[in-house]
Specification:
This protein is of the alpha+beta class and 357 residues long. Helix content is 19%, strand content 41%. It contains six helices and 16 strands.
Length: 357
């Protein structure tokens, strides 16, 4: 406990800190898919140890996702560098990895000291570290080991975090729907610390960015042109879909709601595939490898394509999954954001009606 308290005291004594972070996040919905990225963070604290100014840049999936966050003058700005969009919120500091970790140890770990275990000292990335594991939940029943474990390495010289690991397993629900038993694993590696030398970053010219879309395309609008690739990266001639009824779905392999929609899409594909109805499930932020892992691990039999964020932006998507039913005249007949129990019935009714026209 003394070492952990020294880490907290040391961290909260800083006027500013910058660091580089490498992170890894195993996708619980896709066996074999691991999300990797890096983050550059710059934080300036006020006299009370709270964030007064922050600038964080994040790169994920080998540059396929890039965004930056700026907190200044009590405003938080998030810039999507792929879509060239930004959002802003008042009075909400950036939840950066460093501050969140320190606060979690102080607020959560210290409330359950009996669940904190001091491990043998270790060497990580050539740094001599103190090692701890915190087990807030750990139980075995019906042959399953359900648990949440946190592992933390602390530099013995600087008393700053070096490595953090969050592992867990158990049954999960999403908005009342069961997602089954899932395994979780996240790792964060802190390094390249610079202490008390951070300068403020100026707000960029907002004229170069737009605000995100807030609503989907409406029924009756023409559907934007589709530009998609197959699972080998080859461009698809989408002229073949013209004059056909299409169910265009924008999904994501790391979204908890997508596993709920996948069985429905399998059934719709089996029901309508021979009737000339095209299902196009499109991933716009995933690599070819990620998409193939997800397909094989989730029993997907409906057609899957790849594109980029310009397509999801053209279709005004709101998160995932988003559903657009398009008629033979390329007009949107149905637009739905998210999965629900009534969606399959609604889609069948609409598709049957379109087939009768």
């Amino acid at each position: 406990m003394e070492v952990l308290q020294q880490m907290i005291t040391r961290s909260k004594s800083l006027k500013s800190v910058s660091y580089k972070l490498e992170f890894m996040d195993v996708n619980p919905f896709s066996v074999g898919d691991t999300l990797r990225g890096n983050r550059d963070a710059n934080l300036i604290f006020n006299q009370n140890g709270k964030i007064n100014h922050a600038f964080v840049e994040t790169v994920v999936n080998q540059g396929q996702t890039r965004y930056s966050e700026l907190y200044t003058k009590s405003m938080q700005y998030t810039f999507d560098l792929i879509d060239s969009t930004f959002t802003m919120k008042a009075g909400v500091p950036i939840e950066n990895d460093f501050s969140v970790l320190i606060q979690s140890v102080e607020d959560r770990w210290f409330k359950e000291p009996k669940k904190i275990h001091r491990n043998a000292d270790t060497i990580y990335n050539s740094i001599k570290c103190y090692s701890f594991i915190y087990k807030p939940f750990d139980t075995a029943s019906a042959g399953n080991h359900d648990f949440i474990h946190y592992t933390l390495f602390i530099d013995q010289k600087s008393f700053l975090p070096v490595y953090f690991r969050h592992a867990g397993a158990g049954s999960v629900t999403k908005e009342g729907y069961s997602l089954g038993r899932l395994n979780f694993l996240q790792e964060k590696i802190f390094g390249s610390y610079r202490l008390n030398k951070v300068k403020e970053v100026a707000l960029p010219n907002l004229e170069h960015f737009t605000t995100p879309n807030t609503k989907m395309l409406t029924v009756g609008n023409p559907a934007p042109v589709l530009r998609v690739r197959d699972l080998k990266g080859n461009a698809i001639d989408t002229a073949q879909f013209q004059g056909r009824i299409r169910l265009v779905v924008f999904g994501a392999t790391n979204c908890a709601a997508n596993p709920l929609a996948n069985p429905m899409l399998n059934r719709l594909n089996q029901l309508y595939g021979a009737k000339g109805v095209e299902i196009l499930n499109i991933y716009t932020s995933e690599t070819i490898e990620q998409a193939n892992h997800y397909i094989s691990g989730n029993g997907i039999s409906f057609p899957v394509y790849l594109s980029d964020r310009t397509l999801s932006k053209a279709y005004c998507t709101l998160g995932t999954p988003n559903f657009y039913l398009v008629d033979r005249n390329n007009r949107i007949a149905l637009a739905e954001n998210g999965y629900s129990d009534r969606l399959e019935t609604s889609l069948i009714k609409q598709i049957d009606a379109l087939l009768m026209e």
